[in-house]
Write a structure and sequence with these properties.
mainly alpha, about 160 residues
């Protein structure tokens, strides 16, 4: 049991550090190829790619906070401090909800603007379908978000063992 807790603590601290590093680099405008693929390498839509990096940095900071609260919880479990573990568990739940909210915010902000014209019902429906699709996102962005969620899930499963 102790070994699993220590491994989960190490994994949560490592992922917290990785998320923080990625957030800093994306905020600075570095390593954007991880989010935008070829578009970042070729310099296409540089402002849009930089904005994407800054928005993802917000999500990564929240993910880092989630891992920090998980580390606090695991540390309290190892120390057998029930009061701290209870507070850390509540903070971890709040951080998880904040991560979900930040991911929703990230995808809503990335949506293309809806055209103002098109009062016909078919035109409005087509505009809604276009705005709801993920075609405007880079494949690298979608894969990065899936990897981020996968790392968080893997660390969470390890902590739950």
């Amino acid at each position: 049991m102790e070994g699993t807790l220590v491994a989960a603590l190490a994994a949560s601290l490592a992922s917290m550090a990785a998320f923080a590093l990625l957030a800093v680099m994306f905020r600075r405008g570095s390593w954007l190829f991880l989010l935008a693929g070829r578009a970042a390498r070729e310099g296409a839509d540089e402002q849009g790619v930089r904005a994407l990096g800054k928005r993802m940095a917000v999500v990564l900071v929240v993910g880092s906070a989630l891992m920090a609260t998980l580390a606090a919880y695991l540390g309290a479990e190892i120390a057998r401090d029930a009061a701290v573990a209870s507070v850390a568990a509540m903070a971890n739940n709040a951080a998880f909800l904040a991560l979900i909210a930040s991911l929703i915010w990230f995808f809503v902000v990335q949506r293309p603007a809806r055209p103002s014209g098109g009062d016909a019902p078919a035109g409005r429906m087509a505009a809604r379908v276009r705005a709801a699709s993920l075609a405007h996102l880079h494949l690298a962005t979608i894969l990065f978000v899936i990897a981020l969620i996968g790392v968080i899930a893997a660390v969470g499963v390890l902590a739950a063992l």
